[in-house]
């Protein structure tokens, strides 16, 4: 397939349009200081019965009340005689609707709930990554990408209308899951859009666009900092409004169509890409058809397989220079040393895709390394993102500093893989 994409031109109009549409979703607020609300003097008088006898006698004369962030303390001169929670609610330094934390009083004994909403979001991302990874192979890249993006747009709008914390958390879970559907499908489509030797370009582009998206989000939040969090949510959701017409521009992955024997659709896309790029479609189509012929043996003499008499599921034999071989009722794939092949029954070839992670030593090692790297990288990355607002006094400045660090890292990543 690399020869086909090379014939289409890796940097031509068709690829540029697909890059822009697929990267656009990467272009994606705060706890407000508070203290206990003032309690009327009549309410404090009712608390007299809870005070000690000696303190009660002088209750009206030397009384002083301190309103903390989460408690009310009553002093008789220097002696603390009464303490309680914020029985009359909270007073915030900004309008209460500015943040969902203040709107639903998620402070003091409920201070963990805002962090729980972030945990739920990450849980949704984890479930989405597992679920959509399989669905992308089953139904294709384009349908999942478009559907997830449209649903994400809808869920983001509905989130701004949630009346309570429980419904808000449910929407956060859906946002996390759908976000992974968008991210996985767009990344895979980008990787499958260009030849193998230039495949790093897809990740390099996304690593640069992602921090720019964070900067846009910070800028929008700063401009809307005097508005309710609901309006900010609606503005950020509006960035994805183009998802409603995105299906007109996003094309299915030619590699996925080819792998799933949808050759007629693949050839139509090749012709469309060639026309958009101003190149000869016949050359690309000829290369595509030659690639498909290589996937099947031309004769029985070309492939020699010595079947294993002891097992119906595996066979060993000489490997000819083929990416994948179909022999009788079995599918054969090369092993690491390229001197033998392992064959599986044709009707279980779908199961072989998952079992390959465990049966092929090289694939297993590479997968384990990548998984561990992603885990450690995201563990540190999310921690820095969460802590960046607290590194300086201004939350917006903290996120901007995080943006500068990411841009520097993206530039280094763009330079190093090409060396």
UniProtKB/TrEMBL annotation:
Alphabetically ordered keywords of this record: Membrane, Transmembrane, Transmembrane helix
One GO location term (cellular component): membrane
KW Transit peptide (keyword) present: no
Membrane topology summary: Multi-pass membrane protein
PROSITE patterns attached to this UniProt entry: MFS
Intracellular or extracellular location(s): Membrane
One matching Pfam family: Sugar_tr
Highest taxon, organism lineage: Eukaryota
Gene Ontology MF term list: transmembrane transporter activity
Transmembrane segments: 116-136, 143-165, 201-219, 362-383, 395-416
InterPro entries, alphabetized: MFS_dom (IPR020846), MFS_sugar_transport-like (IPR005828), MFS_trans_sf (IPR036259)
UniProt protein name: Major facilitator superfamily (MFS) profile domain-containing protein
Residues in Major facilitator superfamily (MFS) profile domain copies: 57-419
């Amino acid at each position: 397939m690399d020869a086909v994409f090379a014939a289409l031109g890796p940097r031509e109009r068709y690829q540029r349009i697909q890059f822009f549409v697929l990267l656009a979703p990467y272009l994606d607020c705060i706890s407000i200081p508070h203290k206990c609300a003032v309690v009327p003097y009549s309410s404090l008088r009712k608390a007299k019965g809870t005070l000690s006898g000696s303190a009660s006698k002088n209750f009206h004369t030397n009384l002083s009340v301190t309103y903390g962030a989460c408690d009310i303390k009553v002093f008789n001169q220097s002696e603390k005689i009464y303490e309680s929670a914020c029985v009359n609610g909270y007073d915030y330094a900004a309008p209460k609707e500015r943040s969902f934390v203040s709107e639903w009083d998620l402070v003091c004994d409920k201070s963990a709930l805002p962090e729980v909403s972030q945990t739920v979001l990450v849980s949704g991302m984890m479930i989405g990554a597992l679920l959509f990874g399989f669905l992308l192979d089953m139904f294709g890249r384009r349908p999942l990408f478009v559907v997830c993006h449209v649903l994400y747009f809808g869920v983001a709008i509905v989130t701004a209308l949630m009346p309570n914390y429980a419904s808000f958390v449910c929407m956060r879970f859906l946002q996390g899951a759908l976000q992974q559907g968008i991210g996985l499908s767009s990344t895979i489509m980008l990787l499958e859009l260009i030849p193998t030797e230039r495949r790093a370009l897809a990740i390099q582009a996304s690593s640069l666009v992602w921090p720019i998206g964070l900067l846009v989000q910070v800028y929008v939040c700063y401009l809307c900092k005097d508005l309710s969090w609901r309006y900010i949510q609606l503005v950020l959701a509006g960035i994805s409004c183009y998802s409603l017409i995105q299906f007109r521009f996003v094309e299915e992955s030619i590699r996925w169509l080819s792998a799933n024997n949808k050759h007629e659709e693949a050839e139509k896309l090749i012709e469309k890409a060639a026309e958009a790029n101003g190149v000869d479609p016949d050359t690309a189509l000829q290369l595509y058809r030659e690639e498909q012929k290589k996937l099947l043996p031309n004769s029985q003499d070309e492939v020699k397989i010595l079947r294993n008499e002891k097992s119906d599921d595996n066979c060993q034999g000489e490997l000819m220079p083929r990416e994948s071989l179909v022999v009788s009722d079995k599918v054969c794939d090369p092993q690491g040393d390229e001197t033998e092949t392992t064959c599986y029954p044709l009707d279980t070839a779908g199961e072989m895709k998952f079992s390959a992670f465990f049966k092929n030593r090289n694939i297993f090692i590479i997968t384990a390394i990548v998984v561990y790297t992603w885990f450690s990288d995201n563990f540190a990355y999310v921690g820095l993102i969460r802590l960046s607002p607290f590194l300086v006094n201004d939350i917006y400045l903290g996120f901007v500093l995080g943006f500068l660090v990411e841009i520097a890292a993206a530039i280094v990543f763009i330079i190093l893989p090409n060396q």
